[in-house]
Amino acid sequence: HNFALQENTTMKVPGFAILFCVSLAPSQVNGFHGTSQAFVPRAVTQRRRTTAVEPPATQSAIRPQTRSATALQMAMDPVTYLRTEWISAALVTNQTPRAADVCLQLGTQDGRAVTFVPRTIREFITSTVEPSGELDVRIRRQLQQSEDRRQAAKVVYCEQPADDLRETKDESVDVVISLQAVEAMKENGMDWKKTVREAARVLKPGGRLLWVEPTEIDGESYGDYVESLIDVDDESVLENIEDDEELEKYLVFDDIGYDDIDFILQPHVAGLAIKSMDAGMTVEERESKAKMEEQEKLAEISLQAYERGIKKKKRKKKKKGLAEETAQ
């Protein structure tokens, strides 16, 4: 297409209109600046200047408001937003087991995740990025629209913040997803690390945590935190651990994989973590399970040895019978 960028122009089109402008003639395109930022509109790379507006004399104060989910999504550049959106859909669709029935989303901001989960999911539980746990009317409407279109998972509306899943029972969820929600949580003063711990609490043993989030939050890696999460009821247990192999027994997630998302401007990571089957057990329960597994292993070895002995006797008997027939 005959597409050219004009120098010294001002933004006249919305941020996402860049995706549809490539088929226009040069005279029809107004709103992009410089060839060095050909795919980034000015509204993304340079904030608009605003002037403070004095409140009316009758108002003594204006209550501060938290940023909406839409504002946070629009703050992300279009390239990163669309790329992470595509990765999120692929991750949730492909890595949700067929046997999974219940999915919970950390920080529900719209209804898009309802269309990502497979039709085998029966319940979709919400949580919010608001400390109060209140689910906005706009989000409820979008969730209802997605549920009506999808006609699969039933949306369960819960008034619970993502870092305090008070309406969700322990080990009751098959899959937990977190899709570009950490920044919104941080903006509202929530603890993103606590959301990971809450996800570990509500997940069933063998359940999955799927995430697409910024690579680092305040200098700390999201994936590294998930990988290092430990489940112990008594911290004194950690003092007696001498090597990494012993420490691995107490990790919440025993099978983890994550990687950076390419072709984006803001670093993000996509990952998958599977909860350990021993997570949530006490030290005594772990020791009892280890002894039982050892006994089962010894019993299996004994059974195999007995079966080998039976087969050996049969071969000897058969060989002896053939020798007698030959002699006769």
Structure at a glance:
By secondary structure, the protein is α/β, with parallel strands linked by helices.
Descriptive keywords:
single chain; 328 residues; alpha/beta; Rossmann fold; 2 domains; 7-stranded mixed sheet; two-stranded antiparallel ribbon; UbiE/COQ5_MeTrFase_CS; transferase
Structural write-up:
- The chain has 328 residues and is an alpha/beta fold.
- The chain folds into 2 domains: 1-47, no CATH class; 69-283, Rossmann fold (3-Layer(aba) Sandwich), CATH 3.40.50.
- The chain is 38% helix and 15% strand.
- The strands form 2 sheets. A 7-stranded mixed sheet has the order 3-2-1-4-5-9-8, sandwiched between helices.
- It is elongated.
- The termini are far apart.
- It holds the Pfam family Methyltransf_11.
- InterPro entries: Methyltransf_11, SAM-dependent_MTases_sf, UbiE/COQ5_MeTrFase_CS.
- One of its GO terms (molecular function) is S-adenosylmethionine-dependent methyltransferase activity.
- This is Methyltransferase type 11 domain-containing protein.
Proportion of β residues?
A: 5-15%
For the record, the CATH architecture of the largest domain stands as: 3-Layer(aba) Sandwich
Question: What top-tier CATH class of the largest domain fits best?
Answer: Alpha Beta
Mean pLDDT: 78
Q: How many independent structural domains?
A: 2
What is the oligomeric state here? Answer: single chain
Task: Name the helix and strand elements from N-terminus to C-terminus, one letter apiece.
Answer: HHHEHEHEEHHEEEHHHEEH
Instruction: Give a short account of the largest sheet.
Output: 7 strands, mixed
- Give the spatial strand order of the biggest sheet: 3-2-1-4-5-9-8
Structural shape: elongated
Please estimate the helix content: 25-40%
Q: Looking at this structure, what is the CATH superfamily of the largest domain?
A: Vaccinia Virus protein VP39
The structural class is alpha/beta
Number of strand elements:
9
What do we call the CATH topology of the largest domain? Rossmann fold
Pfam family, one: Methyltransf_11
Protein name: Methyltransferase type 11 domain-containing protein
Keywords: Methyltransferase, S-adenosyl-L-methionine, Transferase
GO biological process, one term: methylation
